Amino acid sequence: MDMLPSKLITTADLADVPAFMLGTAKVVPATRTVTGPGGSVQVEPRVMQVLVVLARAEGAVVTREELFGRCWGGVYVGDDSLNRAVGGVRKLGAGVGAGSFCVETVPRTGYRLEGAVVWSGFDSDDDEVEAATPGLSRRWLIGGAVAAAGLAAAGVWRGEAPDPAAPLIEQAGVALRSGSAEGQRRALSLLEQAAARYPDSAAAWGALALARARIDEHAITRITQPAAKVDEAATRALRLDPGNADAQAARAIVIPYYGDWLAAEQRFDGVVAAHPRHLPTHDSRGFLLGAVGRMKQSARDRFRTMPMDVVDADYNFRSVYCHWFLGQIAQADQAAARGLALWPGHAGNWFAKLWVLAGTGRFDRALDQIADERQRPKLPPPTVATLGAAMRAAMTKDEADTAAATRQVMAGVSRSVAGVINAVMLLNLLRANDALFALAEAYYLERGPVRAAMTTPPGEPLIPDQRRRKTNMMFTPLAAPMQDDDRFLPLMQAIGLADYWRRRGIRPDFLARRQ
């Protein structure tokens, strides 16, 4: 929502800026007041100017130069002035806002405001909002649909007495949307606090169950969430509220679906039928559809059900793949650029961009991306070297380069599951089908001379495939060499996917392409 033109905001201009909700706090620029669970304060004009500019960006990064231009008219006043104003906003989030919003520093770029923003639906003298309690049912949470789901589960949007755990649940949602390991740890800590402090809150227990399940489903850190812990929290939530969407989704997500795809799809469909707007369930269901070779259906469903303005690192990188699967390369590039601008160094967005570049033959740009240490996530040096060698070989098509790169790729498959996942993509790129099927036989069937990693040693990117062997990478556009090989259908029969297609009465994308 573009509430203000992109120009200097003076102190006088603040009088024309409408009041808005930020997290659990109400911000009234006209009076320079912020009111929330932690009290009410009047802030300095410059702090309010910076806060308005950051809020208007709706989760996007605002550069330091833009802040100087919008709040100081481009007059150089020194970094200390900006740092003090940003510090004032941070103090508001931690104090008055009770942690429901915060300012993230994006190194060498600027700042991003994390917290749900609502620009309309109430007046500046709305006592109901001033209490930061009931009445949010009229408001749409811009850029925070995941947090909105948490607030709805807590009863805030239904006009009910608000769940006291709602602020902690919302803070956890903000942390999870960062897509970082630190965000995951913070989210779990906040939700465990919420469940311990408010043991009668179904929303707190449900949110905890769902966070545990989703962190385990797409782990990026060494947080382990045993299924028993997910079920424990889900059971507590459902005992308090049998219709709790988060708890139902957690139980559907936590069960591994490798080899049991039809039952998994039915579980997700059951949750969606009961809770058609539950975004985490739609997200996990979309990932499942990709795992069974229905990439285009997965993409269409995602764009139909997932709001595109959700500021979430993981949702963003999955949208990159979806555009790619639908042949929308320009849109995929735009989504990837947005992801890396908002979340520099985020592995999911970085790899999504890399595979789209490689899959569309832009190897020179893929190599530039690998070489750019500023944007690159923290990858082990052998991984960086292997990615570079494979991209160079794919670009030159030199037989010696290809053979050397193939050996280098295969040397990494015994080190970590991440090495296996990358190898399937890279070996397709190199058209090294013999090595590719030897790896697939080892990874999926535990047969043959190759030893594919089933666990991840310290220092390697974590993919929790000990229970969820990934199949999605075999159905990307880049995997056409594997799909067109006579050995592919027998492999699909051996791992049970051919049986899934028969029982569902559907034809996977690769067969539709071939026929």
From TrEMBL:
Protein name as catalogued: DNA-binding winged helix-turn-helix (WHTH) protein/tetratricopeptide (TPR) repeat protein
DNA-binding region: 17-115
Database matches in CDD domains: trans_reg_C (cd00383)
Residue ranges that the Swiss-Prot or TrEMBL entry lists as coiled coil: none
UniProt GO BP: phosphorelay signal transduction system; regulation of DNA-templated transcription
Pfam families: Trans_reg_C
UniProt GO MF annotations: DNA binding
Xref: InterPro entries: OmpR/PhoB-type_DNA-bd (IPR001867), Sig_transdc_resp-reg_C-effctor (IPR016032), TPR-like_helical_dom_sf (IPR011990), WH-like_DNA-bd_sf (IPR036388)
Keywords: DNA-binding
Transmembrane segments: none
Residues of the OmpR/PhoB-type domain: 17-115
